Amino acid sequence: MKPFELLSFRNPQALAQTAAVAWLEEVAKSTRAGKPYSVALSGGRIALDYFSAVVEASAHRRASFCNVHFFWADERCVPPSDPESNYRLARERLLDPLNIPEGQIHRVLGEASPEVAADSAAKELCSLALRDHNSLPVLDMVFLGLGEDGHVASLFPTEHANLPPKQCIYRAVTNSPKPPPERVTLDYPTITAARKVWMLASGTGKESALRASLSPSGTTPFAHVLHCRSDTRIFSDISTS
Ligand code: 6PG
Asked: Angle at Cα 202 formed by Cα 197 and Cα 205, nearest 5°?
């Protein structure tokens, strides 16, 4: 198990507010340095709290997002206007309130097939992100949520058990146990390659998933992420006692 940081909170609002302020500091550092900044967003209920906290905190700080490019950690294969769309969630709760220009928004083509959307998303990410020594695109930040089964993005235990031999930048998922079944997700190597990964672990019924994931012998998708990279930061309102 590589080093990670666990920050505990009493409720989703406190978690979201602290993570939002910390992220704005990350973005500000990058803006001051005049560097482009790439972030991949997840969906889920905690994302609602988080996006609202970012919008509120950025208003107080007059934060600039002029150098921030938005990608997705995963997307459901539904049209962008669908209530299930992670893009729609982010558009309505984060991107529009922050007036992010279209050119900085790189949605996954949810209206396409998982395979076509995964290929297109990988090409778009690779066209903008720096590459590491394995020529993997390096995202500055990946935000993850935790599923009740220890899934992250749309990487599920069943998927993890039968990892296809060829790992990709984005992967097509056709049998998600969490509806809808067809999705696109960052694959493990791309999450590993990211400069920072912050897990927003929130919600009831996830105690065993988090405990299992933090175990050195853990086998959940989140455990796999923790084993593959250092310094993952976990913001959690889930009890691990
Ligand atoms: C998705 C999400 C998914 C989510 C977790 C946690 O598209 O479904 O990206 O990975 O982050 O399932 O979701 P909740 O915060 O709603 O429990």
From this structure: 125
